[in-house]
Amino acid sequence: MTSKIGIIYNCEGSGHAMRMLAIAQRLEEKNIQFEMTGGGPGEKFLEMRGLSQYKPCVTDMRTRIEQNILKAGLYTFTDPIKRIKDLRKWIRREEHDAVITDDPSGLIAAYLEGKKFYTVSHVTHQVPEDRFESWATWIINRLVIPRSEEFFYPAIWEGLTPETGTRVGPLAPKGGEMDLDFDILVVPTEAAEMDERFIEELKQDYEVKVVGSDNWELQPSLQPFISEADVVICAGYSTMMEASVAGTSVVMMPQTSEQKGVANLLEDYDGFKMFSGDIMEDVEKVERPEPRENGADQIAEKVSQDLK
């Protein structure tokens, strides 16, 4: 009998959908069926692949924490409750053999439904700079790690692995071959709009592609572009993981509490440089790293062995 996995990605940022897609692709290679849900900014990329049919309630906890959680009022608490309820319905309806998720609401839903579940997260309580976010992460991890079949920790940096977690390599989806010719890829995020001034400065000496610009066509994956670029300028960890697997240099421009914590951990590693205020100098000085092993292969192998 063919196993069926439910994959729930965090809805706060499109990168979560891509990192979970990386795992889904490897499971498919092992003849394991999967279904994905999560909603949010990542949904459009999965819809291009015909992979997103169910739309649960979405949350925006990161923005509320960054701005003012008290001003957000009841939505801070009611949206996650609605999301958990929606995800429980989906898990119950689809009768998955197990759930893989990087979403706190997803893991709670799987636990409440009595499903075997695997957690994927690079965030320990030491990562976020914001105290509330650090505290919330500590509580969630303390509750979740002992109940997960496995806690997969996809980290580029050394150390901080949860005591009972399993360290895996960074996650990157597969991308098709494309005929591309440019130097620098700029990847704005929902939380980080890139300054037009430095983009224009870069264009004086380099061929630059800006994701989401007027002449940008929506792509099912950025991986071919990340692999082709000499340097990626970004804020989010998902893009950094993809660059790490491709062996592409990164200039980091973190915006959120979690992004700043990640950038602090990576700034001393080859291939990563914190934005100094002089983008031209950063692009020139950042070193090109050796490609890293894709952790999605490790996760798929472990899950497939468990399901036999």
List keywords for this structure.
308 residues; alpha/beta; Rossmann fold; 6-stranded parallel sheet; 5-stranded parallel sheet; 13 helices; 11 strands
Give structural notes.
Strand 3 (98-101), helix 6 and strand 4 form a beta-alpha-beta unit. The chain is globular and about 55 Å long. The chain is an alpha/beta fold and 308 residues long. Helix 1 packs across helix 13 and helix 5 packs across helix 6. It has helices at residues 15-29, 43-47, 61-67, 69-72, 75-94, 104-112, 131-144, 196-203, 223-228, 237-246, 257-266, 279-285, 295-307; strands spanning 4-8, 33-37, 98-101, 117-120, 150-154, 166-168, 184-187, 208-210, 231-234, 249-252, 272-274. The mean pLDDT is 90. The protein starts with a strand and ends with a helix. The strands form 2 sheets. Strands 2-1-3-4-5-6 form a 6-stranded parallel β-sheet, sandwiched between helices. 42% of the residues lie in helices and 14% in strands. The chain folds into 2 domains: 4-169 and 294-307, Glycogen Phosphorylase B (Rossmann fold, 3-Layer(aba) Sandwich), CATH 3.40.50; 184-285, Glycogen Phosphorylase B (Rossmann fold, 3-Layer(aba) Sandwich), CATH 3.40.50.
